[in-house]
Amino acid sequence: MFSNKPLIAKSVKYSWLITYVILFLIPLLLCNILFVLVDGTIKDQVDRTNYFALKQIQQYMDSVVADAARIASSLAFNDRVQAIATFKGDISPKERYDIILLNRSMQSSNYKSEIEEVYIYFKRIDTVISSKHVMDSEKFFDLFAERYGTDAAKWIKINQEMHRGSFVNITPQNKQLAYMFTYSINQNADDGINVVVIINLSNFYKMIDDLSIINNGNVAIIDENNRVILTSDNLDLMPLLKFDGFQNNSLTEYTSSDGKRRQVSCINSNMQGWKYLYIMPKDEYWKQLGEYRKLVLSGISFSLVVSCIVAFLLFKKNYEPIKRLLKSLKGHNEEDKGMINEYRIIQNAILRSLDDKKELEKWRAFQKKLLSERYLKELLTGNAAEQTDRDTAGIEFEHDCFAVAAFSADMEKPSTVLNLNLQEDIELLHFIIMNILEELLQDICKLYTINFDNIIFCLMNFKEQDEKYMTKLKDAVTTVQETVKEHYKVNLIIAIGNIYNGKDFIKQSYKETRQLLEFEEIVGGEDILVYSEAKKFLLNDICEKINNERKGTRRAEDEIINYIRENYMDEELNVSTIADRFDLHPNYLSRLFKQQVGIGLLDYINMVRIEEAKKLLKSEYGNLETIARKVGYTNVKTFTRVFTKTEGITPGKYREKFN
């Protein structure tokens, strides 16, 4: 946003005053010099000026043309594009999926601003694919014609022809340009594709205005066949010209068919073979020169005096707002003390404001996420407050029917793709499950997910309490289980509670999923458990076994806590290694530890590590990389993420706070 190049150390008022004086004096000085040389050099000067202007336009247009050709060529020979080019007849689902992928690929392409639009016309299937649309050709070309003000039938005919990298005028006025490239399978105009790149010419016309070369004249571009490619606004002169008479890098006098003398500057492009012309009536030069002589001789002495007065008044007027602004900014930061340059002071203030804004936005997003997670936890456990907490968390329920589903990874069958002892991989699994469920269940319920005790709980807000929704839910979680197992090698244990009418029964559905997960851990068997179908089992006997094992776990509680505090610096310390150490099931140990201690086992490990890290940060012990490894993290990135999530501040900011 801002340049890192140092600004001038002196105050801006000195440079401003000098600049104003120079701005007034230089034109006056140049006028005197030009009048000495004007008679012998005016023709050469006009030639150089027009050549420089045309050269910039030529280089710019050559670059745009090259980009258009490159884009068209890369799309025409793209594997997916060539595959779609072979489609014909009715489109199969797989072929439609390929078309959607191509559309998305074109949407994600970042073309330069000079490329206004790119589309591909597939003749076999009579379909146009662009970054914005996928539709049949007739509808697309009607919209295209309406947008660009051209004849739809004529444009359709042009698109049906073969083009080997040719440029076509979209409008009769030669104001809009398109590059067209045809790829044909059998060298047949009716059997292939046309890649069309619409060029945005706004910069082209802006360059003409900015360069101040339109002085009652015309700028024109013609190709090697003397066909008009582009023109400026004044079109009435173009039919009078015979383009073959103009030479490259030359200034030529020419008499048009209406008897008027004109001067034409011309340069050629080696890349396209195009000619760039600037045509101006010769009388315009001498008319302007005569007026200029009268004005300069009478006004040069008067301007010398007035320029100094105006420079001072302008400086005083323009500097006053900066002066007031500096009063409110200077001294607000230690870096500004002793600084003279006003631009640097303002720049520093803006940069500080932007940094503060970014930090505030990050903090707000972090707090909103925490509030949302807290509210969902309280809702599941039956401790949620009423409307105030829900509004603060940004959660809105549209219906009155709720159910809870739980997704737990089977730690006894570790994944070869994800390491579920790492928080980032758990969050990735959470993200995958949430996206699949939202896609499958978006028509029947709204979803809210949370990672709670390393179990992903999904709260579903259904439209009504209907058995058909439970059937769809079971189908959806089956798809989730199969997808995750196939692509990520994670075996999911899934528990589904009953659908209840009323927010007060969310806790009951949550308890049902908990009971089902504990039932599966003790008994084993099915990986997808539905509470309404599990009542036939002897849950009382299973609960008795769970209670007996909990008593054994309570006795081991102190030993586990001591083991964590003695081994927190071990990078391999996680739920699985602790479970192996105490001969317990990882999922079972993690949940019972949460019930006994009030915090998840992985969260407790992170808490101990962060406590030790805070001590080291306060004591200025080493850099962040050293501290991260000292407390058991394999890299500083993971350490920073966990520290920020726990403390709400980065380790670096925490160290600055205490040192």
Short description:
The protein is an alpha+beta fold and 659 residues long.
CATH C-level of the domain at 397-537: Alpha Beta
- For the largest sheet, list the strands in their spatial order: 3-2-1-6-5-4
Helix content: 55-70%
Q: What's the architecture of the domain at 397-537, going by CATH?
A: 2-Layer Sandwich
Can you tell me the CATH superfamily of the domain at 397-537? Reverse transcriptase/Diguanylate cyclase domain
End-to-end Cα distance: 32 Å
Q: Please count the helical segments.
A: 20
CATH topology title of the domain at 397-537: Alpha-Beta Plaits
Count of extended strands:
17
Descriptive key words:
659 residues; DNA-binding; single chain; Arc Repressor Mutant, subunit A; alpha+beta; six-stranded antiparallel β-sheet; six-stranded mixed β-sheet; 17 strands; Alpha-Beta Plaits; extended; 20 helices
Structural account:
The protein is an alpha+beta fold and 659 residues long. Among the domains are: 129 residues; 141 residues, Alpha-Beta Plaits (2-Layer Sandwich); 114 residues, Homeodomain-like (Arc Repressor Mutant, subunit A, Orthogonal Bundle). 56% of the residues lie in helices and 15% in strands. It is built from 20 helices and 17 strands. The strands form three sheets. A six-stranded antiparallel beta sheet has the order 3-2-1-6-5-4. Strands 12, 13, 14, 15, 16 and 17 form a six-stranded mixed beta sheet that branches. The protein has a five-stranded antiparallel beta sheet with strand order 8-7-11-10-9. Strand 1 and strand 2 form a beta hairpin. It is extended, with a radius of gyration of 37 Å. The N terminus is likely disordered.
